[in-house]
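Re: the request from the purification team.
They wanted to know what the chain is likely to look like in 3D before they choose a buffer screen. I agreed to run a prediction and write the result into the notebook, where they can find it.
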Amino acid sequence: MLERRENIIVEKTERFGDRIVNMHQYLMKKNLPIREMLTQVLRSGMSIGANTAESQYAQSTADFLTKLTIALKEANETRFWINRIYTGGYLSEQEYTSILSDNEEIIKILTSITATVKRKQRE
């Protein structure tokens, strides 16, 4: 079982969650016709950090893997919504590139962690 302590993925997903909240609030103040998209990106973006945090207190390796796999799926969904918001013209290229870069980094880390855990389970 992996150690349960603060680590880079927990910190990154917490900071990303803060960015998602800020983006949500910023775009909601503009009274844009994308309320549903903003609700979806808020839910999926915050779920990444929530599942990552839960994984730190997993009851087993399988539970740990499940939580991080859910976080990875939520990160992919968040990427989808960020892309839709950008292609709709609601984010500047700089805003889009910045938040998408953070999202992609989280996806890469979660992909690496889940692959490592799966590999260790097969050994």
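For the purification team: The first helix runs from residue 8 to 29.
Please add any questions underneath this entry.
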